[in-house]
Amino acid sequence: MERSARPTEVVPVTSPFANPNRPGVPPRLPTPPTGWPIGSYATYEEAQRAVDFLAVEDFPVQDVMIVGVDLMLVERITGKLTWSRVLMTGAASGAWFGLFVGLLLTLFSPEPGVTVGPVLTGLITGVFFGLVFAAVGYGSARGKRDFQSASQLVAGRYDVLCHPKSAEKGRDLLAKLAMRPVNPGN
Questions:
Q1: Which of 60, 117, 131, 142 has the highest CB neighbour number within 10 Å of its CB?
Q2: What is the pLDDT of residues 40-84, one digit of tens each?
Q3: In whole angstroms, what is the distance from residue 31 CA to residue 19 CA?
Q4: Over the range 108-134, which residues count as b (16 or more CB within 10 Å of their CB) and which as e?
Q5: SS3 breakdown of the chain: % helix, strand, coil, rounded to 5?
């Protein structure tokens, strides 16, 4: 069989780590992570330490990504809600907003210098509306959520992935890191 001569096609090589529109910039749309695993860690702090170590060792860290696996939403309860706490919080947030509005009014006032009138009016109005909105919001919940909390997204483990061209070197460097004792100060 004789092969016919065809002109050679040039096919651009793309990297899964690069955005085709803007090289070196992460993609705007959610995309699954790619690369070879070079380390796996129980905490984000450990994964960050590994990437910091790679950076110190002049490893091309632009080829690396930290991927949280087995994501969980953790809601930590910070305290019980009471009417006094709700009203104090509402008054405080309203006071800050009212103070801000009052200062803005003095900036655009035709009177020279800072006048106390607009600031005091904004502060009192802000406290009043802060109290009203906090009371209405808490009262409408009717005791269904009588606690304060803070939410955080955490992972079960953190994998460090690397572009295949550098994965072997990265794995070797992280193996050296694993042999070092962990210093709490570093």
A1: 131
A2: 999 999 999 999 999 999 999 999 999 999 999 999 999 999 999
A3: 11
A4: eeeeeeeeeebbeebbebbbebbbeeb
A5: 45, 20, 35
